[in-house]
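WARN no homologs supplied; continuing
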Amino acid sequence: MSKEWAHGICGCFSNVPWCLVTCCFPCVTSYKVGTRLGLTGLAIVSVIVWFVYFGSGWVGDWALTQTSFRTQLDAGKEYEPTEEDQPWLLLYSVFAVTCVAGLLIFLTIVWKMRSSMRDRYDIEGDCCSDCICSCFCTECVLCQMYNHMDVEESVTVGHNYISRV
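OK structure emitted
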């Protein structure tokens, strides 16, 4: 018989320290969950992909500041790219695509971890709900998985349980 999650999707605050870590650095929680599930390779990839996503967003934004885009908007004009803007706009486009690709890969990894966790602990649900939750509530899903693993491990270990904070 299938079980339910120990905490609901919005039960993040049952472990406030990890909730804060996950909000600021989801890659840390995805790494912890992945390694605890035995998906170490996937956990490492999740950290790398998160930094690719985050870094490419910063570089892309910086490239956009090197154009006349902001100056023209501040002057009340409609933006018209100049010849000098072209390399910066190309760089911005490349990093924007990299940023979106990194985010999609990270969400897919979280989805895979959630599906693996449901299978491992015989939790109710299906692939579609895993996908929707992982894509639209990523940080909540990561907290839910981390908290559920704490509950499962406390049941397994019994009174010798020590929280992993």
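The chain is about 70% helix and 0% strand.
OK
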